[in-house]
Amino acid sequence: MPRLKVSELNKIGEQVEVIRAKLQSVDDGELSVSPYDTAWVALVKDINGNDAPQFPSSLEWIVNNQFPDGSWGHSFFSAYDRLRCTLACVVALKTWNCDQEKWEKGMSFLGQYLHKLNDEDLEHQPSGFEVAFPTLIEMAQKLGLEVLQDPTVLQDLYAKRELKLKRIPMEVLHNVPTTLLYSLEGIPDLDWEKLVKLQHKNGSFLCSPSSTAYALMQTKDKKCLKYLTEVVERFKGGAPHCYPMDLFERLWIVDRLERLGISRYFKSEIKEFLEYVYRFWTPNGISWSRDTIEFDIDDTSMGFRMLRLHGYDVNANAFQHFERDGQFFCFVGQTSQGITEMLSLYRVSQVLFPKEQILQEAKEFASKLLREKQSLGQVLDRWIITKDLVGEVEYNLCVPWYANLSLIETRYYLDQYGADDDVWIGKVLYRMYNVSNNHYLELAKLDYNHCQKMHQMEWVDIQDWYEEFNLRDFGISNDELLKAYFQAVSSIFEPERATERLAWARSTVLVKAVSFYFKAISIEQQRTFIEAFHYSSVHSNDRKLDTNGIRNELVEVILKTLSDIGFKIQEVHGTKVDHILKNFWNAWLWNSQTQEDKYLVPNNEAELLVCTLQLCADLYSLDLTSQPEYVYFTSLTNKICNRLCQNQNFKAGWKENNNEEMTIDKPVDSVQLDMQQLLQHVLRRDGGIHPEIKQTFLTVAKSYYYTAHCEPTTINRHISKALFDAVL
C-alpha cells in the first residue's frame, strides 16, 4: 500500500468518530423546529379552563426566535414558509396579548412580502398551504388584524382552497386513515367523535404537532396532551413539523453514507438502523414513522431497496399499494407525483428479482415520468430543495444500477450532495440534521482524496509494469491499460483492498494480451502456446522451452505477474498460492481457444477474475468450488459476462468489417433476466456460501455490464472525473 500522510489518516479517523457518536445517538429524528407548528401548540388554552396557554414555553420560543426583519421561518427564504410561519406566530402572540412590538413587526413583514406569494414556484409549495394559510388569515381577522390590504392578491389561493375543500371526501376523512389527518387545523366542520378513532397510538394525528394541537383544542384529549407535552419538552418549547421521523431518518442516513462512499466505516451502526426499520416493515410498506400507518412510496422504496440489498426478505407486492390504473403515487388517493419519490421508485425498481412484475411496471412508469420532466426542464421537487437534483436524476437515468460502480457514483454524488444547505419541505421548510450534514461531506471528501491519491500511485505502478514487460508489443494500448485499471478501481476502491484491485487490473490486461495474440494464430498454435504455459507453470525453473518470440515472452510475462500477485497475497494472508493462480490460468487458457468466428466465442474470463479476487481476499478454497451453489454462481456469471463480451466483440467486428459503427440496441438487454437471477441468489441469506464470496460474482458481473452499457466517451469522462479530478 502506498504511503500517505499520517495527518490525513488522523483527520479521517477524527471525523469517523464524530459521525459515529452522532449515529449512535439517533433516536426519533433530529430536525429543526417549525415556528408554524410551535404557534399552533402555543395557541392551546389551558385544558383546566384557566385563561393561559397550556404550553407557555412554546410562546416563549416564538418570542425568542423572530428574525430581525420581523418574520419567523427557515433561514432559507421562501415566501410560502416565511409568510405561513410569521402569520401563525403573529396570531399566537396576539391571541395571548404577548409582546406587542414583535407581532406588530411581524404584521409589517406580512404587509411587505405578501405579494411575493405570486412569484413562488408551485413545486415548492408546502403541504396543505392553500388550506391552512387562508384559515390563518381568518383567525387574524377575528383578532382585528388586517392582513389583506388587497384581497385580490390571494384570489387564486382562495379559489384553490375552495376547490380542495370541495374535493375532500368527508366520509373517507372521518373513517379511514389518510394524509388529510396531517392538516386538520385547516379543515372546517370536522366530526371529532369520529376522528378521535383515527388517532395514532402515540396520541398524535399523523405525527403532526399542529394538527394534534388543533385536535387538543377541540377535544381536550389526554393522549393528544401527552404527545404534545413530550414533543415540547424534547424541543425545548418548540415543535417540529412532524415527529417522530425515525424510519425516514435512518433510511436516508444509510443512503447518504453509501452514496458518499463512507458506509464501510459504520457497518455496525447501519446494521442496527436496518434491523430497526425491518421490525416495522409491513406487507404494504412503511411510512416515515413507526407510529403511522399511512404508508408512502418514498419511504417504502428507500426501505425496500436498502433492506433487499442488505439481505432482508421483503416482498415487492408492497408496491401494489401505490399503483392505480398503471400510475404510481406517493400516497393512496393522490393525483400527482414528485421528482424525488419517483427517483426513489426508479432506483428500487432496478433491484427486482425474476417475476416481480410490479417492479418492472414501476421502472417503466418512473423512468418515463423522470425523462419527461427532464426534457421539459421541470426537475424541481416538492419535498426537498437540494444542490443538484438535476444532476442526481441525470446520473441515475444514464447509469442503471447494474452498471453503477461505487467509485463513479461517489465521485458524482460528492458534487450533488447539499449537506447542511439541503432544505426539506413539509408544512414548512426544515432541516434534517442527521441526513443533510457537513460532517458526512467533510469525511467523504477527505476519504475520497485519500483514496484517489492511492489510486493515482497505483496507476503509476501499473504503467511501470506495462513498460517493464513491453505489453505494447502484445497489442495492449495505454488506453486499454487505463480502462482495465479503471474497471477494477471503480468496483473495488477501498485502500485496504489494493491487492484485489491490482490483481484484477493486471489479470484483465494479460487476458486481453492472450486474446489479441490468439486472434492472429491458428488453433494448433494456440494449443502449442497453452501446452508451453502448462509446462512452464509446472517446471518453473526450466527456461529451455521449445517456443519462440512473442509466444515465449508472453508466457514469461504471465508467470512473472502471477508470481508477483502470489507474493502479495502471501504477504497479506501468509498463504502460498502461486500454484493455485497458475491452475486458474491453465483452466482459462484451455477454454480460450477460438473457433472460426472469433468474435462470438465466450472464454469465461469472469470466472478467472472471480477466483483471483477470492484468492486475494482469502475467501477461496478447492472444497468451495465443488459445491453446487458455487458451480451455479460460476456458470451464471460466466453466461452473463460472456454474452456481454460477445456483443462488444460483435460490434467491434462489425465496425472492422464495415468501417462504421453498428446501430443496435444496448447489448445488455438480453442479460436482464440473468442479472435478476444473479442478484436474487447473491442476496439470499440461505445457502452455505459466505456473503462476501457471493458478492464477488455480482461485483464482476456489474463491471462487465458497465463496460457494455456505457459508450467509450462516457467511460473516458468517468475516468477523468473519478480518477484524476480532485474533490475540492
TrEMBL record:
One of its GO terms (molecular function) is terpene synthase activity. Keywords: Magnesium, Metal-binding. InterPro entries: Isoprenoid_synthase_dom_sf, Terpene_synth_N, Terpene_synth_N_sf, Terpene_synthase-like, Terpene_synthase_metal-bd, Terpenoid_cyclase/PrenylTrfase. One of its GO terms (biological process) is gibberellin biosynthetic process. The keyword Metal-binding applies. Residues 472-589 form the Terpene synthase metal-binding domain. Residues 191-397 form the Terpene synthase N-terminal domain. Its cofactor is Mg(2+). This is Uncharacterized protein. Transmembrane segments: none annotated. GO terms for cellular component: chloroplast. It comes from the Eukaryota. Pfam families: Terpene_synth, Terpene_synth_C.
